[in-house]
Amino acid sequence: MARHTEGLESPSVSKASDLVKRLLLGRALRSAQQHEQLLPKRIALPVFASDALSSVAYAPQEILITLGIAGLAAYQYTPWVAAAVVVILLTVVASYRQNVRAYQSGGGDFEVATENLGGNWGVVVASALLVDYVLTVAVSVSSAVDNLGAFVGFVGDHKVASAIIIVTILTVLNLRGLKESGVAFAIPTYLFMFGIFSMLIWGFTRMAFGTELRADTAHLQVHGEDMGVGGIALAFLLMRAFASGCAALTGVEAISNGVPAFKKPKGQNAATTLLALGVIAMTMFAGVTAMAYITDAKFADPTHGSALIDPKTGQDVSEQDPVVAQVAHTVFSNFTPMFGFVTLMTALILVLAANTAYNGFPVLGSVLAQNRYLPRQLHTRGDRLAFSNGIIILATAAGLLIYAYGADVSKLIQLYIVGVFVSFTVSQTGMVRHWNRLLRTEDDPARRREMHRARAINTFGLFMTGTVLIVVLITKFTHGAYIVCIAMPILFLLMKGIRRHYDRVAEELVPSGEDVALPARNHGIVLVSKIHKPTLRALAYARATRPSTLEAVTVAVDAEESQRLQDEWDALDVPVPLKILDSPYREITRPVLDYVKGVRRRSPRDVVTVFIPEYVVGHWWEHLLHNQSALRLKGRLLFQPGVMVTSVAWQLHSSDRLKGRAEPLGPGASRRPPRLAPEDEGARAGGGIVSERD
After folding, report:
1. 577-581, 646-650, 671-675: which has the minimum mean pLDDT?
2. For site-directed labelling of 145, which of 265, 335, 348, 411 has its Cα 20 to 30 A away?
């Protein structure tokens, strides 16, 4: 009945895999070094702001695409739609500044909703944010590939593969740790800000000195499916354009989920960073939209019902540069290098925008795992003190989405922002209840005035975000948002199911009186296939545990072999009785299980301990040369109540080669550099006194 222990790998394989891991991720960090991974505001801003800032690359463009459905005349509403988006952006920023001061654990909207509205609402918010984080990666990377494809033909020809490669690179960078990924993303994000602000300042300066700036697309005509619409149809179109422009708000919530990553005072630093993000994002979005409007830049997408027509030839010329590139080309018409700089930084910021999700998704996943809504593995930090499991899950989900939609931004964008406005609305509702609860017990007049002001801000935020959510659902539902409306309930049910499982297990494991009572007796059973050193060691160990009764059990697969075993047993005068179980169908597992069950039935208050001799081998191919009956039997015995299974290891000489091997670092452990065991710590494989006969 002896078998070997599985799971050992050769030192060369272990060292090679560890070397690759160290090259990709860097050396492991101690848990005590976690404070070194916290972010100052100057690094936190680009880390958490890249998603919101990158919306400058597509939010103004989305407004023009939607308005173009009604033809060129609808472009006159561009400033009003953009102004409405700016109002919502400032409202959300002001509201979330109250959130990050009040809740600093990293739970963000989930924590706010759970504490103030109940667990179900918390799970609703969590499901919405998880979906939106995945879409953030998919949309941002796919949009980046579109922009890069305009400069590098190979990327444009292999969009899906290029997007998945970018996701892989981002994953590795984030697995290296938050601080290092933050530094890596800080410089290009600041360069993007510099490029956009330089473009706006230079453009408005040139116009102030009398230069007329006209975009290359200014002479083109916009034709749409619903030319000249009015009344209710026009109002619906404006709401749809507004909903598309609200893509500029995605990413604002990431700071509330990333508060633990800030240096102390965490709440104040997060609020300051959020204010800076809001001002910068508002200025860039409004500036680019205004410049596009003033220079008469046009953009259309035939798949969305609008097209650009050349009035001289009557041909469709919708294949135009993105709006930001058009504005940059117009503004820097007298300085081409800056045009190249702006377009390059815009393409790069779209790649980096996904990093916001890489910082938000794993932290939220950790909080959900801590609250037993997701598997506990998501709460564990990896080698570099990052939430590695959450990062890998995010990358996998985004990669699958990119593959399923062919990295098509026009399709993915329709799924966007629904989830984030669900979380916005629920979060603001929770914050209003939070302030109401505190006001009932607060007596200090100064503190009450602060709470009244904060409640007013969150109430206004609730009204505005709730209105936008309704608009987004109405205008985007049939254009793809229905998929998110299906995915969120599925995630909700999945997380509730995981929570029920953990609650059921916790309830089942609560100690009770009879659980801690000593069993009446312990019946020991040693499984035997033949008499050799592993069997004798198992017998010696079983005797040392002093069970109430002890017997050896073997299965008679072959009658002659069983008789020879009995004769040898008697000749050696082994001080343990041998019982031979009949097996007419040459089975091993079933007769042993039936026998153990019979012992349990005779003495239900007793326990049965089954001792199984096991081989330990040093080569992978040796796994194939030893029978696996003991492994199968152990798997079945573990399901039997009142039965304990004890493995008694016997190291074959081939395992000597692994004695000095450094123990590989296990996933989820608090890592430390590998250390070789001292020479005197390892006993000779197979050594030690087993019995007088050995």
Report:
1. 671-675
2. 335
